[in-house]
């Protein structure tokens, strides 16, 4: 699990981007980062609606929003797009050119998806874990420590003083002192809360930005866009091509390892997971009904406004980004933060089973719209 997070995923990001993405591609494909952000935005809104309607357990809220908003924007596209390009009668032209350009689109999509997933989605999963663990700790402490009616000082005061008419005065003074202390503490808290929240948000953003997969994507972008850096590691004549070969070899282990993690979770998830059928149906509906319809509308609107190049394959990839099943990295994240592993495996299982039919239907619809 840690190896996938720290080694395999960054290597996959770097190897794919450094080889297939150039600076000109990044400039001409400027709408793709916006489109990926919109998939997360609309998916997150729909996931939030699902949470508010179905009211799942608190530790499942982040997982549900994550599965609704975070799609498999890389690994699956690397498989689907070349397969479609090789089909007879494909509307995307020569299969060799289609496969080469399609892989570049898929690699760029994978890098963008990795950036959003390891910042936005990872924060969702980690927040749910922190809330769940804090709630669990509070419940354990409340169960262990008995409630105390009186403070130790108050008890000694009652034992040392026989006069009962002094008790109300003492209690009143103690209450006044306690009230003053609470007011002062509250004022100090209000003064420091705004600044502490800002610092906390910036710290969290920087921490997620420095995650190994995100760093791998950024370094891959750098080497892909800067020609002299790319010539150092890419190509038969590159002096440091052994670095690219080694990194690519490590990156190839990402998908099999993630699949093994999901399979291991699934063996426990089918027995221990507490996921209601309504949650599964809601997540499947968001991913394969509402999200693709939104995607068609967004891509058509962007094309009519002149934001997109004329390449139909580019339009197809943009639409497909709204239709893919949840990101497999969500399973890795649940392992890292130790929350909802079994539930995640069950949701992923059902969404990927339905994806076999949904991707076929929607791909046909997209090609019909673009032909």
From TrEMBL:
Coiled coil: none annotated. InterPro entries: Mem_transp_PIN-like, PILS1/3/4/5/7. GO terms for cellular component: endoplasmic reticulum membrane; membrane. The chain crosses the membrane at residues 30-51, 63-84, 104-125, 279-299, 349-370. It comes from the Eukaryota. Residues 1-20 form the signal peptide. It is a multi-pass membrane protein. One of its GO terms (molecular function) is transmembrane transporter activity. Its main location: endoplasmic reticulum. Involved in cellular auxin homeostasis by regulating auxin metabolism. Regulates intracellular auxin accumulation at the endoplasmic reticulum and thus auxin availability for nuclear auxin signaling. Belongs to the auxin efflux carrier (TC 2.A.69.2) family. This is Protein PIN-LIKES 7-like.
